[in-house]
Amino acid sequence: MAPGGLFWWVGAGVLIVLELLSGTFYLLMIALGCIAAAIAHIAGATADVQFAVAAVVALAAVLVLRRSRFGRKARKEASRNPDVNLDIGQTLTVPAWQQRRARVTYRGAQWDVELAPGEPEDAQTYEITELRGSCLVVAAKQPARHHAKPL
């Protein structure tokens, strides 16, 4: 194998390893372009044709990925996204409700709390599901279920 072909195979290998670390599939699509260029090299294509093949195949693969379900990220509203707001998923207790609203101490400050639609007022613990300004929207926290192992 000529050194020019080795360039494409090494490039594809490096991109695949980097893809395993990132998990986005985009580097894998570019690696496909490198593999296509390596095949073009084996077929005897000149260097400029190899680069053109790599670019066209990688671009086509990226466009196909973008249109697939793997290329689209589901966007959450910031008020409900635990990656944006670390309070989402935290628990608190509400001693008493007044028309599905309450005022509680959370993280050392007083907060307004609103019960999410359809949630019961008699739960022991509540989980924050959304943050609207200074109002915490909560839902009843489901108890962890422990499965008994048969003897």
Automatic annotation (TrEMBL):
<protein>
    <submittedName>
        <fullName>NfeD family protein</fullName>
    </submittedName>
</protein>
<keyword id="KW-0472">Membrane</keyword>
<feature type="transmembrane region" description="Helical">
    <location>
        <begin position="6"/>
        <end position="21"/>
    </location>
</feature>
<feature type="transmembrane region" description="Helical">
    <location>
        <begin position="49"/>
        <end position="66"/>
    </location>
</feature>
<keyword id="KW-0812">Transmembrane</keyword>
<keyword id="KW-1133">Transmembrane helix</keyword>
